[in-house]
Design goal:
- Strand 10 and strand 11 form a beta hairpin.
- By secondary structure, the protein is α+β, with helices and mostly antiparallel strands.
- Helix 11 crosses helix 15.
- The radius of gyration is 23 Å and the shape is globular.
- The longest helix has 19 residues.
- The protein folds into two domains: about 210 residues, Metalloenzyme, LuxS/M16 peptidase-like (Cytochrome Bc1 Complex, Chain A, domain 1), CATH 3.30.830.10; about 180 residues, 2-Layer Sandwich (Cytochrome Bc1 Complex, Chain A, domain 1), CATH 3.30.830.10.
- It has a seven-stranded mixed beta sheet, with helices on both faces. A five-stranded mixed beta sheet has the order 8-12-9-11-10, sandwiched between helices.
- About 40% of the residues are buried.
Amino acid sequence: MTRQAADKSGIYRKTILRNGLRIVTEQIPSVRSVALGVWIDVGSRHEQGTENGLCHFIEHMLFKGTRKRDARELAAALESLGGSLNGFTSREQTCFYARFLDEHLPTAVDVLADLACNSTITAEHVEREKKVVLEEIKEALDNPSDKIHDIFAQTFWGHHPLGQPIMGPPKNILALSRPDVLRFMKEHYRAGSVVIAASGSISHDKLVRLVKDKFRFVSGVSNSAQMAGYRADKTVKLERSRGKQTHLCLGFSTPPYSRPEKMTILALSSFLGGGMSSVLFQKIREDRGLAYAVYSFNDFYRDAGVFGVYLGTDSENLPKATELVLTELRRMKRRKLTPAQLKTLKSQMKGHLILSQESPNGRMNRLARQELMVGRFQTVQEMIKEIERVSSTGVCEMANRILDESKVAVAVLGPVQKGALSGVI
């Protein structure tokens, strides 16, 4: 089955193979490069207990060698042609992707298919890669601005798998075996849970022929992840560390990725903490000098979402900085944006959207996420119309809907004392 759509910037096409594997492309006539990704609809939220860390570990393992190529040959296959090969793991997906000139499409497909479908995953490589992943975990733990987001996820989601660290705890990695890896891949690396996305100077029909010839996944779909929901209470977690700075994340539940009000949430987030001109940056850094970094963020999942704020400050300034954040959140619930503010906000959002489309890799990511999360393609023009529909009333109503301090999650990391936020949150 093939579907096609077009907008001013590219031509979208989709094909579903008999085994359920989906191929989505967006042809961009103005470029010579291609971004190609193999997206597996499995991430850390699909892991249970001692499995936590397996998705990320498997991502590492698939680069260790195949029946045709050892690790060095995999790395050199596209780099020798001026291209690149990489991968990442998120809470909901695992992706292996390449960037290359259009003339090298057959080679890129062969390499990605070899990596995704023919990896040998030897016991020797499993033991060796454990050391590499453990070092990656140590690096993340030594970086407090990274670690605070893991602590926040645990605080926000509690015992739900979305609260697990993507890389997993060291004890899980040490206990992994080759059979664990093979079993998990057999359960989740299935054709119906795979999307192959490409953007750039790409022939859809040629890619479909190459994918049919090269990719071999077990039929079926992977098991669904445990459903997530909205927060029901307030949770505050303080973790002491010897660092010089104190890091804070606080957040609230939002609707999921597929909901139409997502754009209004993004508008609220952009106005509050979306850049140097945002309210939180100006109030906390420029006016008071209480932080170097302060910003808002959004995490949208298939069935849930998060609106959050991050800041890094001196422990003595933590109560005041946090109070300023909460003051601005409360103010958003009481006032509407002025016509001038709304116009500027919409221009900012449209600019960010259009600039993000300058990169074939960014467009490939958008293609794949749309297919995996909502099962359809949304053109840039459709997204711009959604931005235009954002209203001052809608932003204010959304602030009242989601910024409920009785259900906030707060995580703090740094040289802080118990009760540091007493009377503030």
